[in-house]
Amino acid sequence: MPADYTPTERDLPVVGPDGTPVTYTDTLVDHPALHLQQVGEGEAGGPLYVVGDVHGYYDELRAALFAEGLIDAEGHWAAGNARLWFLGDFTDRGPDGIGVIDLVMQLSAEAAAAGGYCKALMGNHELLLLGAKRFGDTPVQSGAGTASFQAAWLLNGGQKTDMDRLQDHHLQWMARLDAMTQEDGHLLVHSDTTAYLDYGDSIEAVNDAVHDVLTRSDANEVWDLFRKLTKRFAFRDESGPQAVLELIGTYGGERIVHGHSPIPYLLGEVGTEDGESEGVAVEEPHVYADGLAVAMDGGVTMAGKLLVVQLPLTA
């Protein structure tokens, strides 16, 4: 693994909250008969929502989306022309990553039919799963010598049930995800790193560069992209505000919103990766770096909360 990669959890059993084994939940791919209500184009610019890292926690995702009125009790889009962005990391660690992807794909279709939209960004775990599927045990050059996507995927929560259910349309969907976007003055990215600057000086250039890397499908090139998007904590310390300003000065926006780094880590309240400390209650996003950065990973993999919030945040 890259020397600067910080996993968020070491012990990764596929179990539910009560400790019992969990199986995947049927979603759109399992039951493709989907009834969409055509309501026309509708007016753009509905309320804007963002979702932090999901990591396969399908039930928690549905509960959080339902609590915000974005889906109904049956799991279908219920938010009209609202805009919903997922910040990446749909799979690994939790029990049903493919179910999460299926749900996001389903909501994308339903939201579009209702005049809104549901979109998603590329997380480092999407790159990890793509790499494990494409390259397997093929050696790649890492900072610590040779490595492989398969070994890294397993080390960082890769679930056999996800790999077994992974289909071509899942792979195509992940490979086409953008790396960043801007909405209402919010620069949305997955990782709290300045490594995006290595791929271009505009949002369009970065997204095109990432798509080109995945299209060329060179194992070392994809590994380098994965390695860079695993970096974290660029906005946390004294130099954090300046790092944010460098990004928004290049790509636009007034504030950056990201996932990737669990809020307990950003707060310095969890010092180890093995979950030995007391649980840290996360109830809302973490605003930091002189108010310029918003962290959205509530730490669902470490008994935290899967965050779904409306932007802009109220004071």
Offer a concise description of the structure:
32% of the residues lie in helices and 13% in strands.
Task: Describe the protein.
Helix content is about 30%, strand content about 15%. The protein is an alpha/beta fold. The strands form three sheets. The chain has a five-stranded mixed β-sheet with strand order 6-7-8-10-9. Helix 2 links the parallel strand 2 (about 85) and strand 3 (about 115-120). The longest helix has 17 residues, at about 95-115. It is globular and about 45 Å long. Mean pLDDT is about 85; it is low at about 10-45 and about 270-275.
Features of the shown structure:
single chain, 315 residues, alpha/beta, five-stranded mixed sheet, four-stranded mixed sheet, 10 helices, globular
Topology, element by element:
Blueprint: E1 48-51, H1 58-67, E2 83-86, H2 97-113, E3 117-120, H3 124-135, E4 140-142, E5 145-147, H4 149-155, H5 160-165, H6 168-175, E6 180-183, E7 186-189, H7 203-216, H8 219-229, H9 240-251, E8 255-258, H10 263-266, E9 286-288, E10 293-295, E11 308-311
Parallel strand pairs: 1-2, 2-3, 7-8, 8-10
Antiparallel strand pairs: 1-11, 4-5, 6-7, 9-10
The neighbouring-strand order within the major sheet is 6-7-8-10-9
| Element pattern in H and E | EHEHEHEEHHHEEHHHEHEEE
Q: What's the main sheet like?
A: 5 strands, mixed
Q: Estimate the helix proportion, in percent.
A: 25-40%
pLDDT averaged over residues? 87
